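Late entry, written up from scratch paper. The run itself happened at the end of the previous shift, but nothing got recorded in the book at the time, so transcribing now.
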Amino acid sequence: MNTAKVTARRLTSEEVSELGLQEEIFVSAELDDLSLDCFAPGFLTKPGKYFDGASFIAKTIFGKEIPVLPNNAEERGIWVADETGEEIEVLQSAGVLLNLALFVPNGSEQSLELLYAAAREAFGAGVVQRWNEEVVAVPDVKVDLFEEPARGRKSTGGQNRDRRALDIFPTRVRFMEPSTGWKFIVEPHHEPIDDTPTI
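Output as recorded:
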C-alpha cells in the first residue's frame, strides 16, 4: 500500500461549512467495506455552506463517497494540510484503473489470451488484472452515433438539427453516457461522399 506522511489539522463543522469545492481535504480511506487505517485525499461534493446540519459528504480521489460528522470524536473527521498540525498517513494514488472494451474481429479464446499476455508483458504481470470479463458476440457493423439536445426543435428539418458526431462503432455505446441535456441518436453509417467536381 502506497502511503505518505502528511502534516494536517482536523476541522470542526464550522470550519468545514466554510470550505468550497476546490479545497483539498483528507478523509477516511474506505474502499468497498474495507476500512483502511489511513486517510485519502478528497473534496466536498458541494460547498460546505449548503449542507444541512453537521453532516457532510466528501468524495475521495478514488471515487468513494463518505458521509462525515466532523464533530463526532469517534469518527476520523475532515482534515486539511497544516504545518502546525499533526502527522497523518495518507493513501496515495499509485496508478489509473482503465475499463477497456475491446472488439476483436473473429475473436477466439486464443486471441483473447494473446491480448492479455501482451498487456501483462507491457505493463507487468502484477499490474494487469482481469476483474470482470464479458465476452459478447457483436456484429462487425458501423453506425453513426450522434448527440442531439433532449428537447430539440420540432419544426427543423433533419439536415439542420443541432447534433454532434461521436462514434461509428455501436459496441462502445454501452460504455458511454450522453452529455447533460443531450440524448443519443443512432443511424446506419453512411460513408461520406465527396461531390466536388473533378477536372
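The chain is about 10% helix and 30% strand.
(Scratch paper discarded after transcription.)
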